[in-house]
Amino acid sequence: MAVSPHAMSAQPGGMHPAGWVALALLAIGLLYVGQAISLTQSALFVVGGALGVVLYHAAFGFTAAWRVFITDRRGQGLRAQMIMLAVAVVLFFPVLDAGFAFGNPVNGFVFPIGTAVIVGSFIFGIGMQLGGGCASGTLFTAGGGNMRMVITLIGFILGSVIATHHVEWWWDQPAFEAVSLVDSLGLTGGLALSLALFGAIYALTVRLERRRHGDLEKPAASTRDGWRRFLRGPWPLIWGAIALALLNFITLLLAGRPWGITAAFALWGAKLFQGIGIDVSQWGYWQLPGNAQALEASIVADATSVMNIGILLGALLAAALAGRFAPSLRMPLRPLLAAILGGLLLGYGARLAFGCNIGAYFSGIASGSLHGWVWLIFGFLGNMAGVWLRPWFFGRQPKQPASS
After folding, report:
1. CA 57/CA 37 separation, integer angstroms
2. Which backbone phi and psi does 85 adopt, to 5 degrees?
3. Is the distance from CB of 60 to CB of 237 less than 8 angstroms?
4. Which of 352, 369, 342, 359 shows the shortest CA–CA distance to 67?
5. Which end of the chain is more exposed for a tag (fewer CB within 10 A), N or C?
6. In whole angstroms, what is the distance from residue 95 CA to residue 91 CA?
7. Which residues of 160-181 are buried (b: 16+ CB within 10 A; e: fewer)?
8. Model pTM score
9. How far is CA 91 from each of CA 239, 265, 330, rounded to the nearest angstrom?
10. Domain coordinates of the chain in residue numbers?
11. Are 343 and 152 within 8 A, CB to CB?
């Protein structure tokens, strides 16, 4: 992220009052969603809240992790992502291979590979660096009180719904069929290849970091231990990596599909457009059966929306527990423009590419989908372009830890 949540000014003493608000809203949301929709939906709301806490306390971002590797060859954040992915495929692949979990069908995110994924992931990568965050990063930092990321989130939602007006054209462009490593190589072959690739990327970051700096960056020290650190943070990146993989797997078991974020942003934007008199229901994207149903139904009937709201509240709770909830409205013009433009690119790119750093990269690779690996390559190239553009918006910035 552009700003680590743990870099915000601390609030001394007990929990910030915003934490009690977050707890109350989480409790109310749990009861309401369970009564109005289902116990499974309320469980997904809780998983979303847990994701918000994990993302905030571990400051587990993708944007700065990629930026510091691009600019300074520090690979701690990238290595944490490889660990996260390794844990995820070990959990996901056997269940996806079986096709069922506890008697319920499960499906991964496996999508075609073509122009839309390449262009969308590249655009998304630029948006990450200008907007200051990815999909998960935008949610947890906005929930933690970063007002600039609230602006990015608004742009994200707007870009997402604009993309739904064009996305059919993009999806009609040349593409290869969807490829699942689990289906193509079998459980053992898919696992072996995936783990080998994670290991190769991990080893490459170690080699390049040592070549540049002579040694690996040491994890940041914490003044807290035990339960105090667990509740108030900051967490080591490895805690975040493992927790995110576990929570994504729980999402797969509960929802029958992996964790995603950005489809809900398109839905929120579409409902907003409908509310101001713009009929999006005639757009091709919103005539697809699942999307048409979501547009007609309540927001709380949409599992992704419920999880996103949980992430916002979980991050708010974590920020309050850490004593670091300190929103500020001070935003210079150029960073404000970057937040708006970055958000628009994030939203537009995510719809084209069948997802974001979570739905396409994390959950796509965890599903064994080859499109997830294509997303990683072109998303990373987009980040390189975004890093090149950043100085015009932000000036020369001091180095930041890879976890931010």
Report:
1. 30
2. -65, -40
3. yes
4. 342
5. C
6. 7
7. bbbbbbebeebbeeebeeebbb
8. 0.92
9. 17, 28, 44
10. 14-218+230-394
11. yes
CA 82 to CA 22: how far, in whole Å?
32
CA distance 141 to 163: 24
Residue (of 357, 354, 350, 344) closest to 159 by Cα position: 344
Cα–Cα dist 361/366, whole Å: 8
Q: 386 — phi, psi (to 5°)?
A: -65, -40
pLDDT value of position 11 = 43
Task: Give long-range contacts, CB 8 A cutoff, 24+ apart: 377-380.
Answer: 377/121, 378/117, 378/118, 378/121, 378/122, 378/125, 379/121, 379/122, 379/124, 379/125, 379/128, 379/353, 380/66, 380/125
Q: Dihedrals φ, ψ of 110, to 5°?
A: -125, 115
Sequential pLDDT tens for the chain (404 residues): 344 444 443 444 567 788 899 999 999 999 999 999 999 999 999 999 999 999 999 989 899 999 999 999 999 999 999 999 999 999 999 999 999 999 899 999 999 999 999 999 999 999 999 999 998 989 888 888 888 999 999 999 999 999 999 999 999 999 999 999 999 999 999 999 999 999 999 999 999 999 999 999 888 766 667 677 777 768 999 999 999 999 999 999 999 999 999 999 999 999 999 999 999 999 999 999 899 999 999 999 999 999 999 999 999 999 888 887 777 777 789 999 999 999 999 999 999 999 999 999 999 999 999 999 999 999 999 999 999 999 999 886 655 544 44
d(CA 137, CA 153): 10
What gap in Å lies between CA 44 and CA 53, rounded to an integer?
A: 14
Q: Residue 311 in contact with residue 144, Cβ under 8 Å?
A: no
Question: And the tokens for 170?
Answer: 């993009």
What single letter denotes the amino acid at residue 195?
L
Buried/exposed 6-43: b ≥16 CB within 10 Å, e otherwise: bebeebeeebbebbeebbebbeebbeebbeebeebbbb
Gap between the Cα atoms of 344 and 389, Å rounded: 16
* Amino acid sitting at position 204: L
Distances from the Cα of 16 to the Cα of 21, 227, 375, angstroms: 9, 18, 39
